[in-house]
Amino acid sequence: MNKNDVKLILKSLGIHPNKKFGQNFLIDEQLLDKIIKESNIISDDIILEIGAGLGVLTEKLAEVAKKVYAIEIESVFCGFISKKLQKHNNVEILQGDALRLEFPHFNKLVSNIPYSITGPILEKVFFKRNPPLGILTIEKSLAERIFCKDDYKTFSRITVSVNSFLNPVKKIDISKNSFFPRPKIDLSLIVLKAKQKIDKFLQNETTKKFYLRFIAGTMPYKNKNILNAIKYFLKNFNTEIYFEKKIKESLNSRNLLDKKVFQLTINEFIDIARTIYQFLSYQNERD
Fold it and tell me: pTM for this structure?
């Protein structure tokens, strides 16, 4: 499907691309083939696609996968895809907001994710035990943060959160001309694989939420040492002086006292969050 094809279809449907929904349609056959290749789909794979649009990727996925669940928020597009792919009995169209829908079982997420919901989708799909494989087209700046290695400028909340659950294994830059309308942002195709072992602290829903809150709360102070960042974070809690002294002793015992936030490893982030969570739990029990 080329640019003119997309224009004609949109005109016939009476639809104008909605920036709010990140509606940029894939028109590059080579990129389409690359996505399918990187997905390494086998006959038993169950695929989830978010933001199916006009079904260009959906159709290719249906040709090789056992089952394809295609989520699309625009009801007109859902009708178009259903008619277009009616010969494929392994495609199920799910109309609705991907952030609100309950997902069916799947083992691979293959999507050109709407840019405005990339962060929430990553959390919903991948931040859990046994996450699926991800082959995603996302904003290039986000991809660079996910693949960040000791770079202060690109080190961010998404760097830590994604790398706590996943191994980013490949990043391929994509031309804006691969989509219509041409997006204003640069894009990358990334491949994310599940870590072989995810820390138990991240497998429990309560402690996982605390961990993500800890990352969000300390990241604004990424150029400060971790002790100072923790002090800022703890302003959200009614902690005692004794508690802060114990945190300092704990960091010192692990030679982390003077380490800056952006210099911490993923395991150090998890260990520190676990320690603070345990201290807070102990304080709450005393209260």
Answer: 0.93
